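Design a sequence for this backbone.
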């Protein structure tokens, strides 16, 4: 596959993932699917906007760049027909690195939140009743959270989705780093620099 075409495929996948991560982060502001009575009742990691900023906003920029690479005009750069395309592929590596940082940020926050567990009402106070992810293997501990209703399932599901989707985003951006290197060194098979003036190979 041409490097530009490969980048477009990656961008096509990254866009919906970025949207889903943003939605998942927004839903976490509603513990158990309900409006929080107090902002202090929301898990701290939600306020770091891992899904909104890391896997959302920071992922949109590289995704849009990847989508535009296949149609990038590669002609007439300093007398070299292919260098425009090569520069575009090189710049995509930088944007892929930005995407990797965003995905890594979301992944780390999600992992910390999953290990820490949700903030909930234990009957005496709003606190974090779980220690070092013990609730992940022992479901009987979930009874420690009296409110909001189903907060453990809500927390576990959404942060797990963020963890998985940010991991996928990181892998896709990593693929584009390799793809961008190939495009920088070899150009793109559809670049006019690979053709003669009459469009023939």
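Sequence:
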């Amino acid at each position: 596959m041409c490097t530009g075409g490969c980048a477009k495929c990656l961008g096509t996948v990254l866009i919906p993932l970025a949207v889903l991560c943003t939605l998942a982060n927004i839903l976490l502001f509603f513990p158990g699917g309900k409006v929080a009575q107090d902002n202090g009742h929301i898990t701290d990691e939600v306020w770091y906007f891992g899904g909104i900023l890391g896997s959302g906003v920071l992922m949109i920029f590289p995704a849009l760049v990847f989508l535009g690479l296949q149609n990038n005009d590669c002609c007439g750069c300093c007398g070299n027909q292919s260098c425009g395309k090569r520069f575009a592929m090189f710049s995509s590596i930088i944007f892929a690195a930005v995407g990797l940082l965003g995905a890594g940020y979301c992944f780390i926050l999600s992992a910390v939140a999953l290990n820490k567990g949700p903030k909930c009402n234990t009957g005496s106070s709003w606190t974090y009743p779980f220690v070092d992810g013990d609730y992940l293997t022992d479901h009987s501990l979930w009874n420690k959270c009296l409110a909001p209703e189903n907060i453990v399932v809500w927390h576990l599901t959404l942060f797990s989705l963020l963890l998985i989707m940010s991991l996928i985003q990181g892998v896709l951006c990593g693929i584009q780093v390799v793809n961008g290197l190939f495009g920088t060194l070899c150009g793109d098979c559809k670049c006019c620099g690979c053709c003669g003036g009459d469009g023939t190979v």
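Residues 3-191 form one domain.
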